[in-house]
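Write out the 3D structure for:
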Amino acid sequence: MTAHELDPQIAEVLRTVEVKADERAPSAADPLVRDDIAPLRGRSLPIRLYQGPRDDCVIVFFHGGGFVKGDLDSHDVQARGLCEVTGRPVVSVQYRLAPEHRFPSAYEDAVEVVRWVHDNAGTLFDGAAARIAVAGSSAGANLALGAAIALASSPSAPGRAAARLPLRLG
């Protein structure tokens, strides 16, 4: 599998784990899930860390919501499912939303947070490899793939990417 092919396991999770509006609240307190902050240049972003049993790769997940809505809670079920099914640690990212933050704010957040996770994976997840995969749902898939392309020739380049773009007919 080449560096930029979709990981079938991650793609399957994103395809099958649906997020419903009434599932916004995270599950009861979980010692393997914690909220944190990603300090970036000139700003910081809320992130949620999901500890998986495997440490060979960290998945950076971007929520959907058309770049104008969505947050760590609205896509908690999806991020948890990604961690549970793959067994890998997941970093869910609360990127800046429009209209308060115009383009390319969300894209810049995605590129910088993937680079930051690459540089800090071992600290975030107690020795996890700096190998990164990116994943996202809808608008988050756009950000995940945009970050992968932007970082393709850098040491922070994600090894895998998965996208879930909703297709609704009729």
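The two ends are 35 Å apart (CA to CA).
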